[in-house]
Specification:
With 296 residues, this protein is mainly β. The chain is built from one helix and 30 strands. It is flat, with a radius of gyration of 21 Å.
Length: 296
C-alpha cells in the first residue's frame, strides 16, 4: 500500500499547480513564437521549425508581440491572433506591435495608442511616437521629443532633438547633435557624446564613434570596441553587425559567431533571426542554418 505524508502531498500539489499555470499561460499566449514570411508576394507566419502555420494572405505583416501581430490588407492595418484571425479590424494608416498592453497606430498624420480591443486609450495627437516601456513612451510635440505616461500625460517635457524607447531603465536622447542616455525620471545618466546610438538590450547599447559602431554598457563604458560598418541591438545574446558590406552576428564578447554573408539581417527572437538576400527574406537559427529559405 502506498503511504502518503504531508510533505509528499504538498510537493505533488505544487507540481500539479505549476503544470496548470504553464498550461493556462500557453493557452493565453497561443503557443510558441511565430515569424512573418513572404510567399509569392503575400505574408503569413511560420513557427520556429519553419512550418507555415498562418497562410500567406496579408499584404504586409510585422512580428507578434503580446499575442497579437499587425497586418495590412491593402493600405489599412489591423491585428491578428496566433490563429490568423483578425481581432482588430484594419482601420489604421500604420501600426506597431503591442507593448505593455498598448500599440502605436496612425490615423492620417497623427499617432495615438490603442488597447487590445482596438479602442483608443490615448487619442491620436502626436507628430511622432514610440513604444511603451517602463511605463513611458517617447512622443513629439512642436518638433521636440519628450515622454508620456499610460494616460498620455507628459512625464518628461518635450525638449530633445530625438528620443528612443526605454529599455533596461535607460533611453537614448539627442542633445546638441550628440546622443546620450536618460533614466525614467529624465536625468542624464550617460552624457551626450556619440554620433549615433540605439536602445539598450541585454545590457548593451550600440553606439557610433568616429564613423564606426560598437557597444557600451549601462555605465557608458565601451564594452565592444567600435569596429563595424553597422550594428543592431543584442537579443538572445547575439547582435547583427556589418563588415565589408555583409551582415553576420557577434556574441557579447564581440566574437563573430555567424560569418558576414547576408545583405541584411534582423534581431534574434526565441533563437530565430530574419535575414535577407536581395529582396528575399529567410530565417536562420543560432547556428546560422536556414529554417526558412529566402523567399519574396
Amino acid at each position: 500500500m502506498v503511504r502518503w505524508n504531508s510533505r509528499l502531498v504538498l510537493a505533488l500539489a505544487l507540481v500539479v499547480l505549476l503544470v496548470a499555470i504553464v498550461a493556462v499561460l500557453a493557452l493565453r499566449q497561443g503557443g510558441g513564437e511565430l515569424y512573418p514570411v513572404r510567399q509569392q508576394g503575400r505574408c503569413g507566419y511560420i513557427d520556429r521549425s519553419g512550418k507555415l502555420v498562418v497562410p500567406a494572405q496579408f499584404d504586409r505583416a510585422l512580428p507578434f508581440q503580446e499575442g497579437l501581430a499587425p497586418v495590412a490588407l491593402g493600405n489599412r492595418w489591423g491585428y491578428i491572433d496566433r490563429r490568423g484571425r483578425l481581432v482588430i479590424t484594419p482601420a489604421f494608416d500604420l501600426a506597431d506591435p503591442f507593448s505593455e498592453g498598448k500599440a502605436l497606430v496612425g490615423i492620417g498624420p497623427r499617432l495615438g495608442y490603442i488597447n487590445k480591443e482596438g479602442k483608443f486609450v490615448i487619442n491620436p495627437q502626436f507628430e511622432g511616437a514610440g513604444r511603451f516601456e517602463n511605463g513611458r513612451a517617447p512622443a513629439v510635440a512642436n518638433g521636440r521629443w519628450g515622454y508620456i505616461d499610460d494616460d498620455g500625460k507628459w512625464q518628461i517635457a518635450p525638449q530633445f532633438e530625438e528620443a528612443g524607447n526605454f529599455s533596461d531603465g535607460l533611453a537614448m536622447v539627442r542633445v546638441g547633435g550628440r546622443y546620450g542616455y536618460i533614466d525614467t525620471g529624465g536625468k542624464m545618466k550617460i552624457n551626450p557624446q556619440f554620433e549615433a546610438a540605439g536602445d539598450f538590450s541585454d545590457g548593451l547599447a550600440v553606439v557610433q564613434m568616429a564613423g564606426r559602431f560598437g557597444y557600451i554598457d549601462k555605465s557608458g563604458k565601451i564594452a565592444i570596441n567600435p569596429q563595424f560598418e553597422a550594428a543592431g541591438e543584442f537579443s538572445d545574446d547575439l547582435a547583427r553587425v556589418a563588415m565589408q558590406g555583409r551582415n553576420g552576428f557577434i556574441d557579447k564578447q564581440g566574437r563573430l559567431v555567424i560569418n558576414p554573408q547576408f545583405d541584411d539581417a534582423g534581431r534574434f527572437r526565441d533563437g530565430i533571426a530574419p535575414v535577407w538576400m536581395g529582396d528575399r527574406q529567410g530565417y536562420i537559427n543560432k547556428q546560422g542554418r536556414y529554417i526558412w529559405n529566402p523567399t519574396s
